[in-house]
Amino acid sequence: MDELDARLLRELDAAPRVGVLEISRRLGVARATVQARLDRLVAGGVIATFAPTLDPMAMGYTVTAFATLEIKQGRGQAVLAHLRRIAQVLEVHTITGPGDMLCRLVARSNDDLQVVLDEVTQCVDIVRSSSVIALSNPVPHRVLPLV
Fold first, then answer.
1. Which of 26, 48, 62, 136 has the least CB density, counted as fewest CB within 10 Å?
2. Stated pTM of the model
């Protein structure tokens, strides 16, 4: 990745709906150059998706929580299959430390969070869970500073 790629990614981040022709104008390069760069960044996995970024809070999910799960040895795939069926489970990371998985969850209220946590822990392969509620998100998910 070079400086032109970085500028291209910054433009896309700032205005995701802008067309290739407009990006080429802003960057001062040919449209074919921008298209070739985009194609290469997509093929290389740098650009993972052109899908819109959805905001759970704007969709009514005002509570964000994190749950650490301890699971039975060798049952990770079964637990992941269970978690994938729960819409409010937005992310799952396998981790080191006292737990085995860290989940980011959303809910419409604290009462709804209890329902979500109950559904998460219904899996017999989950031995223990602990959860925390996020109070704010002062540094939202970002990748652009790495460019």
1. 136
2. 0.89
